[in-house]
Amino acid sequence: MKADLLAQLVNVLGEERVSVTEADRLLHGRDQSAHPPHLPDAVVWPHTTAEVSAILKLANERRTPIVGWGAGSSLEGNPIPLRGGIVVDFQQMNQIVAVHAADFQAVVQPGIFYKDMNKILGRHGLFFAPDPGANASIGGMIANNAAGTRTVKYGATRDNVLALEVVLANGDIIRTGSRSVKQSAGYDLTHLIIGSEGTLGLVTEATLKLAPLPEHFSAVLATFSSTAVAAAAVYHIIGSGLGPAALELLDAAAITYMNLDEAINLPVAPTLLMEFHGPTVETLQTELALVQEICTDGGATHFSAGVGREERDRLWHGRHQLGEILFRAHPGERYLITDVAVPISHYPELAAYTADLMSRMGLQGALFGHAGDGNLHTVVFPPADNLAIDLHSFNDQVVEKALRLDGTCTGEHGVGIGKQKYMVYEHGETAIGVMRQIKNLLDPHGILNPGKVLGD
Amino acid sequence: MKADLLAQLVNVLGEERVSVTEADRLLHGRDQSAHPPHLPDAVVWPHTTAEVSAILKLANERRTPIVGWGAGSSLEGNPIPLRGGIVVDFQQMNQIVAVHAADFQAVVQPGIFYKDMNKILGRHGLFFAPDPGANASIGGMIANNAAGTRTVKYGATRDNVLALEVVLANGDIIRTGSRSVKQSAGYDLTHLIIGSEGTLGLVTEATLKLAPLPEHFSAVLATFSSTAVAAAAVYHIIGSGLGPAALELLDAAAITYMNLDEAINLPVAPTLLMEFHGPTVETLQTELALVQEICTDGGATHFSAGVGREERDRLWHGRHQLGEILFRAHPGERYLITDVAVPISHYPELAAYTADLMSRMGLQGALFGHAGDGNLHTVVFPPADNLAIDLHSFNDQVVEKALRLDGTCTGEHGVGIGKQKYMVYEHGETAIGVMRQIKNLLDPHGILNPGKVLGD
Question: Of A164, B298, B321, B415, which is most buried by a Cβ count within 10 Å?
Answer without folding.
Answer: B415
